[in-house]
Amino acid sequence: MTIEYGFQFDGIFDEDQEIWKFNLKCKTFDGESKKNMLTYKMGRRRRLYSHKQLILFHDSQSKIFDETHKTDTLKLPSTFFEMKDFEKFLQVAHGVQLILDSYDDSWGVIMIAHRYGTKNVLTYCERQLIMDYEEFREFCDSCLVIRIIKRAIKFNLYRLLAFSLEFLFKNYERDTYDLFNSLNWGEMTNESMKIVMANVLYGEH
What we know:
It comes from Caenorhabditis nigoni. By secondary structure, this protein is mainly α. It is built from ten helices and five strands; from the N terminus they run ββαββααβααααααα.
């Protein structure tokens, strides 16, 4: 018989953001024996851990479940994203109101959330990007807004798409024909097409 003992810290206080975050770098107590822990592995050494039910609850397309239900381990592709972005993704997926440090941070997390179909993370990042528009208005140009529009189309962020189109036409003189032709219509959903058509062709913004 073996007895395990020690301290388990489920939360860590982030002094910079002044919020509590989950401790994802340590295994959950008794997690392996009770099968209530997921391990996220990138390469040989990099690991993160989380409570299984907390993440699978938000796994709307069952992509994480399908990849982990036999081994409780999710192997992360090192060529697709970085571990620091995946940790931020997990924090938001667990309900932490994380402030994403930069524009690139948001899209790094969105890319992961889109890959695994985690809608609560997509919604959170989308809302934060919309709120950040006011902050980068001073150094934002039409090219950046168009990049955001294209990414919103790619990741099916409909509110961000509508907001960005409205922002573009209100703040910049833009040839709608050029914009119309620069978009990738092949990757659009029907909902994205409706939003673009309403704004670009009919000026409903």
